[in-house]
Amino acid sequence: MEARSNSDVQRLTLHVAVSSLATALSSVFSVVFLVRAGLTPTQIFLVTAAFFVMRLVTRPIVLALTPIIGVRRSLICGVVFTAVSCPMLAPVNGIGFALAAYVAVGALGQAFYWTCFHIFFSAHSDAERRGSQLGFLQMLGALAALIGPAIGGVLLTRFGPWVAFGIAGLVALLSAWPLLRIGEPPIPRAMPDGAYAAAKNGAMLYFADGWIQISLTAWCIVMFYALGARYDSFGGTLSLAGLAGAAGGMVLGRLIDKGHGRRALWLNAFILAVGLVLRSVTFGHAGAVIAVAVGTTLFGGLYVPAWMTPVYNEARISPCLLRFQFAAESGWDMGGMLAGVLGAAMCHWGLPVEAVILMALPMVPIQALLLERSYALRFPGPGLSAAAAMAEG
Fold this sequence. Notes:
Layout: H1 2-25, H2 30-36, H3 41-69, H4 71-88, H5 97-124, H6 130-159, H7 161-174, H8 200-226, H9 231-244, H10 248-257, H11 261-280, H12 286-298, H13 303-316, H14 321-348, H15 353-358, H16 363-378, H17 386-392
Helix pairs in contact: 1-6, 1-7, 3-4, 3-5, 3-14, 4-5, 4-7, 5-13, 5-14, 6-7, 6-9, 6-10, 6-13, 8-14, 8-16, 9-12, 10-13, 11-12, 11-16, 13-16
């Protein structure tokens, strides 16, 4: 059983390595592509909110189909829809049918993909090494960010969006290959008692992260304008930042696995808060933007392991992984949707985009307190390992 689990994690890791490259070639440019397509910041935040809404309303399809066709096939469906959505961004030229189609297909792909990806990682990752394994996935994403944005920026500048996003779509399709033989997590067709109640804390943590993610949309807009609205400069800056953050997640992941989750979460909260403030005070200066991008990404690998490790632990011991992730991901959509609408309103009222970055600041201590409660439940003592804590739970 243990060997199969390790094999499954390896396949999932290979998938993440390839899919992270596809993301670095396309998704990281989606916001700035909309800027070049003529959308105002207000419109971009509304489009982002609409993306969250579409994820929310299409996720019941995942809940209905996954027990019938299996989690693996549902995950592969998510990969395919996401890959198809990459070149669909190319013809977007303002608000219209092309943008609506991109949002609909991309949101459907993400609803399938992320719900099922979290199920696989919760099911197959090792309890005593979950933080390190999650940190390693983060490191792979950072390594993809070393080359992907730079290549994507050059492709967009020299060959245009059809070539750039078309290549990204092909790479995304290729990432499905390691998933063909991954072990199928058991999912009950009937909903067990307490399935959604077990996801209450996870849904609130996802809500907090969804809210915070809107600040990244604002940061991309600020960066792009400061760098002269050039794809190659934007992509090159992201690649430079990726070099700085390649190992951060591994360091914190090991810290969590050694029973120091509480220390890690407060360290992460402090770094996140400082990063948000720094991103809001670059004043459009290119040098400041580059310095802040590199500096905040250096510690950016701390973020995901700090909050996702306890969520995966809670998912693993819940009555049903599918219902847990359905509820948790819905929380993420609600947070992103509400923050996106508020961000659009702030820009409509004349506030600068930097103000939307700071909008995430009050959510940082809320997220930390939720994590404190989660770690208190799963890691009752400073020396208790993740495996022992879960065994006692």
